[in-house]
Design brief:
The complex is a heterodimer of chains A (408) and B (274).
Chain A (H helix, E strand, L loop, with lengths): L1 H26 L3 E6 L2 H9 L7 E6 L1 H13 L7 E5 L3 H4 L11 H6 L2 H5 L2 E2 L5 E2 L1 E5 L4 E4 L1 H6 L9 H11 L17 H13 L5 E4 L2 E4 L3 H16 L10 H10 L4 E4 L3 H8 L10 E3 L15 E4 L7 H13 L1 H4 L9 H10 L2 H10 L10 H16 L5 H16 L1
Parallel strand pairs in A: 1-2, 1-3
Antiparallel strand pairs in A: 3-12, 4-5, 6-12, 7-10, 7-11, 8-9
Helix pairs in contact in A: 9-17, 10-18, 11-12, 15-16, 17-18
Chain B lengths: L1 H44 L2 H10 L1 H31 L5 H7 L1 H4 L3 H11 L15 H28 L4 H9 L4 H29 L3 H7 L11 H10 L3 H30 L1
């Protein structure tokens, strides 16, 4: 009996081994694309079956994709033919990415320059190594119904105006707050804070004779921290740990009246807050600035071909085909990067013009292989400051020192 | 009965030896891998002194090690308090309860962590005022509770396996001689489980040194003021942030320190059980 069982188990193992080998063989004929799980990656999933050649989709979570790309690209493993890259990862991976040129001039001219520049290494001037597929950028979301109730007719244009508006709209006893910060430590708090610092003219690093050096301006950083703390006080309880989901929920429920958010939130907000008799209940605009509207953070998803890919030409053809299909998959969750697509979408939904304008005037994160360490240092400083762990001055000095050490 | 107890003693002694060997072996294996990795980085960059100097001046290392230590202690305190309360009154548990106790462990760590998070979140859960998630100690307490929820069942099962070998007559005799429950626990139960508790604490410290997933799932980079950022989270950020040489240095130092501590403790345990 026992011998028979062992025999069957052995047969089963042989069967699975043969099957897995045959799978590997067939996967060699396909173009393998690593995509991020979520709305940005879904764009490719919805159209890839229409392509003439066979494609294999490898869907990974944000963190898993980053770790997988870093380990497989740096070891020249031939795991993928096309990879989807979040733009701040690009400098770290650029050495392992194949050049993409030549690309048709009609396509290049149609891509928004702020997005196209992200695909070059060094930024804006180097060789083109990717194409931007999803054109995310931050926007200021305002509840126009709550603004109207408070006698405010237009969204704020400057940070001081935003604080004034938010103070007017905050009534904690009714559970109503003027703003919602995205205070969760890590990338969320950094993406929420840096547009304020940038709008005041601040920079974290600058290029000095080809070397990236720290350039935190203490006074500007302290001013930005103070603005952020005021916004934190005008935000709902728990906002110190808010991420995208919590912010959007607070905005939809009317707990918060304004927030900096990504266009992906539009579809949820649009469904939850349809127009009423007074018109639209929400509005998007460019983030506030110092004297006029400011800048937002750009967060595009790029398509690139690893040097190790054995199907570079097929992969390039597929990337160009996907860029041609942008109109078919673009929506607020995955904004396009092509001007022509924006023009067409704006005919139906005028807010696409605002997204395009925000994209054109957006700011990119510092282009260095060590961006994630700088991001962590900024998160540590800002999160500590709003948790009342340190003074603004001590926080700014510590960040200056930390970035200096990181860039050494 | 005596033969049975002797056999169990032998079994526990062997288990202790095997686990200590496994632990030592795993540390040596990871240590060797880490040395190779570090050597590779050092050969390519030639700045080992810089790494060690940087380590000495790195406030984040001290901060994250402190966080790891706090979380380990809080989690153990919760688990040992529950263990103390239960072993005071219950000395034998049925097979069905043992299986039930394994459920939290079988659930993994991410799903319970997210459930705890939603419960305490002001935007997604039932709480409206100030949340525990906003405060340093609150964030630490939540993470430690999630860990305790997952692991206490295992601790209970291990403990009751040891207590099963105590004859019921000892406790009956204690009751007749009016020895109270606390004294019974102190003189009969505790000596029986103390080495297991020591070994468990050591394993849990190893677990905390590698813990990333639960914390990242609900606090991303480490909660308010990075108050729950562990040492391994910091090292992993360094590794994936193009600073793998420094990350290797930190891992190597961690292993060196841990190796010495583990050897000392296990050696002492081995002598005590022999």
């Amino acid at each position: 009996m026992a011998k028979k069982t062992i025999y069957y188990i052995f047969l089963l193992c042989v069967f699975f081994t043969i099957q897995s080998c045959s799978k590997t063989e067939t996967s060699q004929d396909k173009i393998r694309i690593a995509i991020v799980a979520g709305t940005e990656g879904d764009a490719i999933k919805t159209i890839y079956k229409n392509y003439s050649k066979r494609i294999e989709i490898i869907e990974l979570s944000y963190t898993a994709l980053r770790e997988q790309l870093q380990s497989s690209l740096s070891t020249n493993a031939t795991n993928f033919d096309i990879v989807m890259i979040d733009d701040p990862w690009f400098p770290q991976l650029a050495d392992y990415i194949a050049p993409l040129e030549p690309v048709p001039a009609t396509l290049i001219d149609d891509i928004i320059p702020a997005s196209l520049n992200l695909c070059k290494n060094p930024y804006g001037t180097g060789e083109l190594k990717a194409l931007p597929f999803v054109g995310n950028t931050q926007l200021l979301f305002s509840r126009s119904d709550r603004l109207r109730e408070a006698g405010l007719n237009t969204p704020p244009q400057t940070w001081s105006e935003l604080i004034r508006f938010a103070s007017k709209l905050t009534t904690p006893e009714n559970g109503k707050f003027g703003y919602a910060i995205r205070g969760r430590s890590g990338a969320p708090i950094v993406t929420d804070f840096l547009p304020i610092y940038w709008s005041l003219g601040g920079k974290l690093t600058h290029n000095s004779k080809g070397t990236l050096v720290e350039s935190v301006d203490l006074e500007t950083f302290i001013s930005a921290l103070e603005i952020y703390k005021q916004l934190c006080r005008l935000s709902p309880p728990g906002s110190i740990n808010f991420d995208w989901t919590e912010m959007t929920a607070a905005f939809i429920h009317g707990t918060s009246a304004m927030e900096l958010n990504w266009p992906a939130a539009i579809s949820d907000i649009e469904k939850a807050l349809p127009n009423d008799s007074n018109g639209s209940r929400w509005i998007i605009s460019l983030p506030p600035g110092l004297k006029t509207t400011g800048t937002s953070m750009i967060g595009n998803w790029l398509l690139a071909i690893p040097i190790s890919s054995t199907k570079k030409q097929e992969a390039k053809d597929l990337i160009l085909w996907l860029m041609d299909q942008q109109k078919a998959v673009a929506n607020t969750g995955r904004p396009p990067t092509r001007k022509s697509v924006y023009n067409e979408l704006a005919l139906k939904s005028p807010y696409f013009k605002v997204i395009e304008e925000a994209l054109e005037s957006s700011t990119y994160r510092d282009r260095t292989k060590k961006w994630s360490l700088i991001e962590d240092a900024v998160s540590r400083s800002v999160s500590s400051y709003i948790s009342d762990d340190a003074t603004a001055e001590a926080t700014a000095k510590k960040l200056k020192k930390d970035i200096g050490i990181i860039l050494q | 009965m005596e033969a049975k107890i002797r056999l169990r003693d032998q079994f526990i002694l062997n288990a202790c030896n095997i686990s200590s060997r496994c632990l030592t072996f795993s540390i040596i294996t990871v240590g060797i891998a880490s040395i190779f990795f570090l050597a590779n980085d050092i050969l390519s960059s030639n700045n080992i002194t810089n790494f060690f100097l940087r380590f000495l001046n790195d406030d984040t290392v001290k901060f994250t090690l402190g966080n790891t230590f706090y979380l380990w202690i809080i989690s153990l305190l919760i688990q040992f308090s529950l263990l103390f309360a239960s072993t005071m009154f219950i000395r034998h548990i049925s097979m069905a309860i043992r299986i039930l106790l394994l459920i939290p462990f079988a659930c993994g760590s991410i799903a319970p962590a997210l459930s705890f998070y939603i419960f305490f979140s002001t935007a997604l859960g039932p709480i409206t005022g100030k949340s525990l998630l906003d405060m340093h100690w609150g964030a630490r307490a939540i993470i430690a509770t999630i860990d305790a929820w997952q692991w206490t069942g295992i601790l209970f099962i291990a403990t009751y396996s040891l207590l099963d070998r105590l004859p019921q007559s000892i406790f009956e005799q204690c009751t007749l001689e009016r020895i109270n429950l606390v004294q019974q626990w102190k003189f009969i139960v505790f000596p029986q489980i103390k080495w297991m508790i020591g070994l468990y604490s050591l394993f849990k410290f190893l677990d905390w040194l590698r813990k990333i997933d639960t914390i990242q799932a609900i606090f991303d980079s480490g909660g308010p003021g990075h108050s729950v950022e562990t040492f391994s989270m910091y090292v992993s950020k360094l590794y994936f942030g193009s600073d793998s040489s420094y990350a290797s240095t930190l891992i190597f130092l961690q292993l060196a320190v841990f190796f010495i501590v583990v050897c000392l403790i296990l050696n002492r345990m081995r002598h005590a059980t022999e």
